[in-house]
């Protein structure tokens, strides 16, 4: 059984919440999308991605394929709008089927796994710093000092489908494990050590843990929209 908690908040510096999320225990699907405000209509893009992924997973498609189709849907919607800038969104999603789980993502929304008393970041941000290092164009220190190190290099609606990198990984889901999905509004303002400390609470429900995580992000500055979904395996 998966117990899950969920919460979204606009943060303290933005009036509009461009994040979106979805959770369905029967379908075994949870996701967070983070619209890119700088690209125009980020809240529309995040909602389109959510709807497309849910629709395609319900239709029997794999999680990765559903995300690819969401990219195409958003690109087509942007063309119909004739906007000067495309709509964009990041996504991180969790699919649970029996004892197996799969996490897939595009952009810098993150997935974490709590297992055996330790926190592990499952996803790797699609940002310029990682791209520079992976291509050998910069050392880790040089990439960390780059003025555009956090620029997103992959996003639905912005990246052409032929170049879209939908990263994914899977594993066995066992009792006691927890999977956290979040937008960068959480990961930017709450350190991993603090996330681990909150997930270690044995006497809190999944919803109480999520409430505490979002509260910690607000205490940390609330610099962006904040969304978190926590799935706990019993």
List keywords for this structure.
five-stranded antiparallel beta sheet, 234 residues, Phosphatase 2c, domain 1, single chain, 10 strands, 32% helix, alpha+beta
How is this structure best summarized?
With 234 residues, the chain is an alpha+beta fold. The protein has helices spanning 42-58, 63-81, 128-134, 140-145, 184-187, 192-199, 206-219, and strands at residues 2-9, 19-24, 29-35, 89-97, 100-106, 110-115, 118-121, 167-172, 178-182, 226-233.
Tell me what the structure shows.
- With 234 residues, this protein is an alpha+beta fold.
- The protein has one domain: 4-Layer Sandwich (Phosphatase 2c, domain 1), CATH 3.60.40.10.
- Helices cover 32% and strands 28% of the residues.
- A five-stranded antiparallel sheet has the order 1-10-9-6-7.
- A hairpin with a 2-residue loop joins β6 and β7.
- The longest helix is centred in the first third of the chain and has 19 residues.
- It starts with a strand and ends with a strand.
- The model has no long low-confidence stretch (mean pLDDT 91).
């Amino acid at each position: 059984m998966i117990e899950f908690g969920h919460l979204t908040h606009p943060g303290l510096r933005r009036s509009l919440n461009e994040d979106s999320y979805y959770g369905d225990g029967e379908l075994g699907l949870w996701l967070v999308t983070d619209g890119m405000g700088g690209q125009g209509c980020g809240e529309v893009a995040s909602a389109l991605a959510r709807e497309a992924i849910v629709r395609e997973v319900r239709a029997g498609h794999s999680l990765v394929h559903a995300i690819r189709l969401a990219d195409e849907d958003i690109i087509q919607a942007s063309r119909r709008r004739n906007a000067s800038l495309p709509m964009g969104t990041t996504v991180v999603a969790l699919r649970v089927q029996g004892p197996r789980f799969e996490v897939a993502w595009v952009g810098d929304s993150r997935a974490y796994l709590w297992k055996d008393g330790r926190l592990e970041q499952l996803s790797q941000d699609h940002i310029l710093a990682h791209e520079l290092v992976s291509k050998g164009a910069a050392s880790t220190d040089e990439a960390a000092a780059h003025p555009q190190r956090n620029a997103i290099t992959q996003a639905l609606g912005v990246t052409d489908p032929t170049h879209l990198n939908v990263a994914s990984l899977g594993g066995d889901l066992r009792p006691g494990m927890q999977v956290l999905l979040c937008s960068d509004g959480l990961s930017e303002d709450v350190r991993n050590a603090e996330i681990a400390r909150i997930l270690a609470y044995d006497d809190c429900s999944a919803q109480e843990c999520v409430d505490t995580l979002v509260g910690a992000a607000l205490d940390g500055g609330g610099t962006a929209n904040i969304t978190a979904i926590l799935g706990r395996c019993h």
